[in-house]
Design brief:
The chain is an alpha+beta fold. Helix content is 31%, strand content 23%. The chain is built from 19 helices and 36 strands. The strands form nine sheets. The protein has a nine-stranded antiparallel β-sheet with strand order 1-6-7-8-9-18-15-12-11. Strand 29 (707-708) and strand 30 (714-716) form a beta hairpin. Helix 7 (340-357) packs across helix 19 and helix 13 (481-502) packs across helix 14. The longest helix has 22 residues, at 406-427. The protein starts with a helix and ends with a strand.
């Protein structure tokens, strides 16, 4: 029996919203249970995650903990690397023997990362689930609660940040509870209504793309593979709880609340995870004791209030036809029946996922946020820092979730500590360096298993400058001088120190990077050979130029280190410039090589357009046009075939001011790179896999379509598509610590409200074809609210 969304919502109590907080597209809902992991619904508090399947005869919550990884700190640096550096540079800069240089770069690699691990499963098996008519399940983004309802049965699942637990509320019913795990583990039930799962993670898990006869390895030694515990407590109102082997049975309860906590042996990225099982158990006991003080109603209220402080900061409403179809059916119908409301839902979903996977004190969102069900997840579910991790945080500042940015900063500070040793040992350089991948242990050296990785990803040394951009952007959005002095400047300065040492003079007298790769793309060398390594790839130079510029501006702001600033200014003036190739495209390499993968999903040479700010249509029109040509060529060759790459394309189009093309890519993303539960997807043979970066990147790109502030002005509706003729957005952020609300009708801006978090002067820019009704440059006091109208 199919039920409409309205009928389902009437059966499930919703959190009351104030009239001005009504946002019609903040719920995913479905008319059937999930049959596979990528159909389940995610809840999370930054640390504890669960995928809720919503079954009728049984419920499964697949569980994750953000610090449950394989491995331990290890020595990944390669002293042999620097012995090859001079020869690699000679082969590139003098002999132009690019293929030989690439082969030698493989000898500069280190070991593979470790992997994020699935913690376990909570399974609830119902004796007699009853009438399953009127089935519905939903994820309420506004309350961060997953709900299931059918017949007389209802259940709710939440993952609470304030109380650091997962809670499940069940209506009447008799059922059995169990915990299990793919990891080495054992479970035990007790008569007091508690259930414990204890286990140990592997000492190493090989990446899923590596063939191995022994990919998952365990070591009984303490600290070589961390221990963990999941603890569950049942509160059955009016019923009985009994033990059945290693399970708990609940019988005759009017309602049941299940509380679940977890802990691991992780003690920090630079320490062995050797906490004992007893110590971990005590952590769980204390956490359960703290959470048990509250009733279900109190836990729910505390959770919802905490979540809504973040989630309700921003709203987006697009004039769209109301739909009564389940989310997955709306997605299937999108090509034939464009559904702008679904795009608004996708925008809010990205914000929800960031709140759920990245909170103060947690690990940052990895390739799958905090949700993973495999021992060898795709790309180890690590932090891929040649775009994917950075894309996870593009929406953090623009979409008013600055606190969620914090875990990334914490990770980078640890990476910097390890990266200083890698810079010294691998390259004989000062400062700090990191490459394209890192893990819980903050591996800073190139991966590749000492020669097994392609240099186009393994030997890319420029992630540190890109990560530094996040520190500078956080400062630009917040104006937090203490953050700039105490956290951003040391990280940025250290990365710039490495870049100064890394740069080398080419035959034209420019300073260049060598070896250099354009991330994950290769080229045809003049001798016809396939090659990967050259000098001064466009992205390298864009990142170094941006880092030097940001450091120079930071030094001027703080008054710090004038001598170092002068060094940066002198070096910046000599960097390899942008170049335009024979097709009118922005060159990907410093020479106009022919790319081997014209449809490569990475589009890194256009970094200066987005997320960088060096290339703009008004400031550098020639290079902006060249990026347009590059983007059109990439897409024409089949590029942007992954969700995250398509999200990047939407951001490019937004920065080029092309609303129709941005919307075209949004439609392509929903049709080709989105799963039934709106998870972003990456093709994998005849199926697809989940990667969360596309969710985050698309949310950020939609914000860029509506508001931009990277070019020294607040630009309203820079890339509004005709399909969004009427709408409103509230709570976006502009650089300079300004909140922006904006409303428009018939494709024209009506008014904007600016809320100043700090005093400043702001240049305003109206949408194309409109003017600011009043002065276009305004000065705001801290706390001032100013309404801007348009003519």
């Amino acid at each position: 029996m199919r039920v409409t969304r309205r009928e389902f919502m009437a059966a499930v109590p919703a959190v009351a919203l104030a009239a001005d907080d009504q946002t019609p597209e903040t719920r995913l809902w479905f008319s059937k249970p999930a049959t596979q992991w990528t159909e389940a619904l995610p809840v999370g508090n930054g640390r504890l995650g669960a995928m809720v399947f919503g079954g009728v005869k049984s419920e499964r919550l697949q569980l994750n903990h953000d610090s449950l990884w394989s491995g331990r700190p290890k020595d990944w640096n390669n002293p042999e690397a620097k012995t090859h550096l001079a020869e690699v540079r000679r082969l590139v800069l003098e002999d132009e023997n690019y293929a030989a240089a690439g082969a030698l770069c493989r000898k500069m690699q280190g070991p593979y990362n470790d992997a994020y691990q699935p913690m376990g499963n909570l399974v609830i098996e119902f004796d007699s689930p009853g009438d399953a008519s009127g089935y519905g399940r939903e994820l309420d983004l506004d309350s961060a609660i997953a709900k299931v309802s059918f017949g007389a049965h209802s259940r709710e699942v939440l993952s609470s940040f304030p109380d650091q637990l997962i809670a499940v509320r069940l209506s009447a019913g008799d059922f059995v509870l169990s915990l299990d795990s793919l990891l080495q583990s054992a479970s035990a039930a007790r008569a007091d209504g508690t259930l414990r799962l204890t286990g140990k993670a592997p000492s190493h898990s090989e990446p899923n793309y590596v063939r191995s006869d022994d990919p998952i390895r365990y070591d009984p030694a303490e600290g070589n593979g961390m221990r963990f515990e999941v603890r569950l407590k049942v509160v059955a109102e009016g019923g009985q709880v009994s033990v059945e082997g290693d399970k708990l049975r609940v019988k005759g309860a009017r309602t049941t609340t299940i509380l679940l906590v977890a802990a691991t042996g992780y003690r920090g990225f630079d320490r062995d995870p050797d906490l004992s099982a007893d110590a971990i158990s005590e952590m769980c006991r204390k956490q359960m004791e703290a959470g048990s003080k509250y009733t279900w109603a109190q836990l729910r209220q505390r959770h919802v209030a905490d979540h809504q402080k973040l989630f309700r900061r921003t709203t987006l409403q697009l004039q769209a036809r109301a739909s009564s179809l389940p989310t997955d059916e709306r997605l299937k119908n999108f090509a034939g029946t464009p559904d702008e409301g679904l795009l608004a839902l996708y925008f809010h979903y990205g914000r929800y996922l960031l709140i759920a996977s990245s909170r103060p004190g947690t690990q940052p969102a990895n390739l799958q946020g905090i949700w993973s069900d495999q021992l060898r997840p795709p790309w180890s579910s690590n932090w891929t820092i040649n775009i994917n991790t950075q894309m996870n945080y593009w929406a953090a500042e623009t979409c008013n979730l600055s606190e969620c940015h914090g875990p990334l900063f914490d990770m980078v500070e640890g990476l910097m500590r390890n990266g200083r040793e890698t810079a010294r040992i691998n390259y004989g350089a000062s400062g700090w360096v990191s490459h394209h991948n890192t893990d819980l242990w903050r591996q800073s050296a190139p991966v590749g298993n000492f020669g097994g990785g392609s240099p186009t990803w393994a030997n890319w040394q420029m992630s540190a400058p890109w990560l530094c951009a996040h520190f500078w952007e956080h400062y630009r959005f917040t104006g937090d001088q203490g953050f700039l002095n105490d956290r951003a400047w040391p990280v940025m300065r250290g990365a710039a120190e490495f870049c100064l040492d890394w740069l080398i003079e080419d035959k034209q007298g420019h300073l260049t990077t060598c070896p250099s790769v354009s991330t994950e793309n290769s080229f045809t060398a003049p001798n016809g050979q396939r090659a990967e390594v050259s000098a001064g790839c466009t992205m390298d130079m864009a990142l170094v130029r941006e880092l030097f510029t940001n450091c120079i501006d930071a030094a001027k702001t703080t008054g710090a280190d004038p001598a170092f600033r002068q060094k940066l200014e002198a070096a910046r003036a000599r960097l390899v410039p942008y170049r335009i190739g024979k097709f009118g495209q922005l060159q990907e390499w410093s020479k106009d090589f022919v790319e081997r993968e014209p449809g490569q999903r990475h589009m890194s040479h256009m970094y200066g357009l987005y997320p960088g700010a060096e290339i703009t249509p008004r400031g550098t029109p020639e290079f902006a046009q060249a990026t347009r040509v590059s983007l059109e060529r990439r897409l024409a060759a089949g590029g942007a075939y992954t969700g995250w790459s398509r999200a990047w394309a939407i951001g490019f189009w937004a920065r080029l001011g092309d609303g129709p093309k941005a919307h075209e890519s949004l439609a392509a993303l929903l049709q080709h790179s989105t799963g039934p539960n709106l998870f972003d997807t990456h093709p994998a043979g005849n199926s697809s896999i989940f990667q969360i970066d596309g969710n985050f990147g698309t949310t950020a790109a939609i914000a860029e379509m509506l508001l931009q502030s990277h070019a020294g002005e607040i630009h309203f509706l820079p890339a509004l598509p005709v399909q969004w003729a009427t709408g409103s957005v509230r709570g976006l952020r502009a650089r300079g610590n300004v909140g922006v609300d904006l409303a428009w009708e018939s494709g024209r801006a009506k008014e904007a409200t600016l809320r100043a978090g700090a005093a400043g002067e702001f240049q305003l820019r109206a949408p194309e074809g409109q003017k600011i009704a009043g002065p276009s440059k305004i000065r705001l006091r801290a706390g001032e609210v100013r309404v801007v109208r348009f003519a």
